[in-house]
Specification:
heterodimer; A: mainly alpha; two-stranded antiparallel ribbon; 13 helices; 4 strands; B: alpha/beta; 6-stranded mixed beta sheet; 33% helix; 25% strand
């Protein structure tokens, strides 16, 4: 997986030496930041052997509602910007609570619920402004993501700090161990005194909150909030998680891997851009890349398993 | 001895896994028309040997001869075509398919020009098969997931028996069966043997060994120790051969006078049980006997908070437990432990490391602030491994790599970390060899000596009688009786009677 980075990096640097320039690396980091935060929920839910398809929609809705609030201020104070961020997080949290209660407490199917939530959040995003894009935020707000400290945009620092927190939460806390246990064997976790319902609910709440937060950051970064801002992020997040070594069967992997996965995707997209390929070709190539990573990971799991391919996915 | 009689011969067969020689130059022969039992401790190589015979593993050395000819199957399919079939210890069923679909997988009867599966014929054939095997409670159209584990095992047996076999290998086939089903299986086994089929039977149940076997082969540490005719040998000699030293009186029970009451259950009613009254005191081992389906596991899971309770009361250490929002998390904080029947799917997270499994139930105790420390996890795990003599090279290895007996020890180690006052065991030594069994018994005895209260569900009668201070018997969800160890009616016959016929 680390190879993945090396391969991508070497490949594109050969084609275009400016790929490895400070400016370009900064671009790659910046472009991966929002994806990283959106992928927090995706990582946790996949670790617990489920998934959250609504992260893209939640980010979009978070961005839209926060954007609606922010656009009324020509020169917002720090407090107002803070409130705006909180609004985005709260919107995301509300979505997460819904997912969490339906899936964690009432045990509805997670595919059904998160797909439905995905639809609803995108739908609500349209409703909120009648389909219009919100743009033209004040500089103060945009600086939340774009202010450059030591030449690097704030959003990269934010993503880095958040990543560190998530990695620590998953690897160094009771909660993290519970997540892995639930993903490895829900039955065993339940019979070991772990409150599985509560863990699942918390995972979706965190996922929603993170997605909402990402939505606000995205709006600040791109100076616009549209009803399709977050569209596609759910699939990129899935890809980042899988490439990063957290397989669908749960109980294995972690957010550190997702960070690398997100960077790889970002580097890939960036590299393809620098060689001037059209966006459609880009998408095909990225899709092929993701597919080969998945096949490779399934095959190497199969080799490790005496029983071969049969036992890789339950 | 007529060499024409030998179906399968192993010559210096060897199998090596990373770090271990699982089968070490074993030579043995299997005759046609015999029931050949292979016994040995965990890690003795029994499963490995038969897996090579069945085409699941390939030998790293030596040779196998089938009817005098070189035999080296590439895979299970080839072995089956040579007439060798195996029934595994772990169930290999497709849960969401019907019984008939499972039995006839890969050889479904087809009809018509489009080769559609002839479902009616398949179900009919399956019913005929079951009738001939006197399996009455399972219908071909039942979904496997709706059957009990015992019934699923019978389906596996039927499936293996329905093909023409020269050699049928059964790995621990009786671990989930009731006495009636075991009798059925034995009748079937004898019938096949009389028809000339060779049968290899791996078992830990010494009583069965004497009852069904013609010859017994003992393995130890991957090596062949010896083969005896069943009629010539006695139990003690076999045990000595298996472990290399004498194990007498494996139960070693000490009777303490019971301390204070730890668990009391009054009129408890749940999905599969009604009006259960029982109690367990510190220093006591209380057994629960009963046929499969009596509701024992369901009762235990309800007491532990995993399944809902519909009525009655549960008191732990004298305090009543409120059922609203009761879950296993609260049970654990109430000092309860539960070791489930199926250690692989319920007792352990098999893909996780030994150390992560060992600390799993005690995380709140070990890390009250919520932050985990690798060193603490490692040292707790090492303690558990040392105290329970778990055989492994590292606490970081996956549990899936351990043998059944060692896996059960990890489950026990996990609950020991929580320092519970009540331990609920559900079939603690199922599928475990005699050496590991006696180790587990001594661990249980230590727990009791230190004041723990133990509730033990077991289908192993000698085990219950050997260990329990009192035994409750359940039948069809109700208590049919309670017998104390000091009563003269504390016998296997009486317990079985209560389990089958009920009380009053």
């Amino acid at each position: 997986m680390v190879w993945g980075i090396l391969v991508v990096v070497v490949f594109f640097t050969i084609l275009n030496p400016s790929f490895l320039s400070f400016r370009n690396i900064e671009n790659i980091l910046t472009d991966s930041s929002v994806l990283l935060i959106v992928s927090i929920g995706m990582t946790m839910s996949i670790l617990s052997e489920q998934i959250d398809m609504s992260v893209g929609g939640t980010a979009t809705l978070g961005g839209m509602v926060a954007g609606l609030y922010m656009q009324q201020f020509e020169n917002p104070s720090a407090m107002q910007i803070f409130i705006c961020i909180v609004i985005g997080i709260l919107v995301g949290t509300a979505v997460g609570v819904f997912n969490g209660v339906m899936i964690g407490k009432f045990k509805y199917d997670f595919w059904l619920i998160t797909f439905a939530t995905m639809s609803v959040t995108f739908g609500l995003s349209q409703v909120v402004t009648g389909g219009n894009v919100i743009s033209g935020f004040s500089r103060n707000f945009r600086n939340v993501s774009n202010y450059e400290l030591l030449g690097v945009p704030m959003i990269v620092f934010i993503a880095a700090v958040v990543s560190a927190v998530v990695i620590f939460a998953l690897r160094g806390t009771r909660f993290g161990m519970h997540v892995y246990a639930v993903g490895d064997s829900e039955m065993c976790a339940g019979l070991s005194g772990i409150n599985v319902k509560s863990i699942r609910t918390i995972i979706y709440v965190i996922s929603g909150a993170a997605a909402g937060f990402a939505g606000v950051l995205l709006a600040a970064q791109t100076n616009s909030a549209s009803p399709i801002s977050g569209s596609g992020y759910e699939f990129d997040a899935m890809a980042a998680v899988i490439i990063g070594g957290t397989p669908f069967e749960g109980g294995k992997g972690g957010f550190g891997g997702t960070v690398i996965g997100a960077l790889i995707i970002s580097a890939l997209t960036n590299g393809l851009l620098t060689i001037g390929l059209s966006t459609y070709v880009q998408q095909v190539l990225i899709g092929v890349f993701i597919l080969s990573i998945i096949v490779f990971s399934v095959l190497s799991e199969a080799k490790k398993n005496k029983n071969g391919l049969r036992r890789v996915y339950k | 001895m007529n060499s024409q009689n030998i179906l399968l011969e192993l010559k210096e067969v060897k199998k090596i896994f990373p770090g271990i020689v699982a089968v070490n130059n074993v030579s043995m022969d299997i005759r046609k028309g015999e029931v050949h039992i292979i016994i040995g401790e965990n890690g003795a190589g029994k499963s490995t040997i038969v897996k090579m015979m069945a085409g699941i593993l390939k030998p790293d050395g030596g040779e196998m001869l089938l009817n005098g000819k070189h035999y080296a199957p590439e895979n299970v399919h080839e072995a089956q075509q040579c007439g060798i079939n195996i029934i595994h210890q772990e169930l290999n069923v497709m849960l969401n398919r019907t019984v008939a679909e499972n039995v006839y997988i890969g050889r479904e009867p087809i009809k018509g020009p489009f080769h559609v599966v002839d479902v009616k014929k398949m179900n009919r054939d399956c019913q005929e098969l079951f009738d001939s095997l006197q399996i009455s409670q399972i219908k071909p159209t039942d979904l496997i997931c709706n059957l009990s584990i015992a019934q699923q095992q019978m389906v596996e047996v039927a499936k293996a028996v329905s093909t023409k076999n020269d050699l049928l290998i059964m790995d621990e086939p009786t671990s989930s069966l009731t006495q009636k089903e075991i009798d059925n299986l034995f009748r079937l086994t004898r019938k096949l043997r009389d028809e000339g089929v060779a049968i290899i039977y791996i078992s830990h149940r010494m009583q069965e060994v004497a009852e069904i076997g013609d010859r017994i082969t003992v393995m130890r540490d991957g090596c062949y120790v010896g083969t005896r005719e069943t009629k010539d040998v006695d139990m003690q000699e076999l045990i000595t051969m298996m472990v290399g030293h004498k194990i007498e009186n494996i139960y070693n029970k000490t009777y303490y006078s019971p301390g204070k009451e730890v668990l009391r259950v009054e009129d408890l009613t749940g999905l599969r049980f009604r009006n259960i009254n029982l109690n367990v005191h510190s220093g006591e081992i209380v057994g629960i006997a009963g046929l499969i389906g009596a509701g024992r596991t369901e009762l235990a899971k309800a007491i532990f908070g995993f399944d809902p309770i519909n009525g009655g009361k549960v008191y732990i250490n004298g305090e009543e437990i409120a059922f609203r929002g009761y879950n296993t998390s609260r049970a654990v904080s109430n000092e309860m432990s539960f070791l489930p029947e199926d250690r692989k799917s319920e007792g352990l997270c098999v893909n996780m490391s030994i150390q992560d499994n060992i600390v799993q139930s005690a995380l709140s105790k070990l890390f009250p602030k919520g932050f985990t420390h690798k060193k603490v996890i490692q040292s707790e795990a090492q303690k558990g491994i040392k105290n329970l003599k778990i055989s492994t090279t590292s606490e970081k290895k996956r549990v899936s790599a351990l043998s059944g007996g060692n896996q059960q020890k990890v489950v026990l180690a996990k609950w020991l970390v929580t320092k519970s006052s009540l331990f609920i065991f559900d079939e603690p030594t199922r599928g475990i060899d005699i050496g590991a069994k006696s180790e587990i018994y001594s661990l249980i005895n230590d727990l009791v000596k230190n004041g723990a209260a133990i509730l033990m569900i077991s289908s192993d009668m000698p085990e219950l009688i050997g260990l329990a201070d009192r035994i409750y018997v359940m039948k069809d969800g109700e208590l049919s009786g309670e017998i104390h160890a000091n009563e003269t009616k504390f016998t296997q016959e009486n317990i079985l009677n209560l389990a089958i016929m009920g009380g009053n």
